[in-house]
Amino acid sequence: MDLPELTFPITVDFIEDSYWIGAVGPFKYGEAATAFLAGEGFTASADDDALTEELAAFLKDFGGSLKPYAHVKSGSDIPKAGPADCLVGYGFLTLDVGPVPAERYIFSSLRDFLYVELGKAILKGNAPRQCRLCGNWFLHESGDRAMYCERTAPGEDGRTCREAGARTVFEKKIQEEEAWKLYKRAYKKYYARFMKGNLSRDDFKAWTEQAAADRDAAIERMSSTSDAEERAKITEQLQKQLNKL
Question: What are the boundaries of each domain within the chain?
Answer without folding.
Answer: 10-140, 161-242
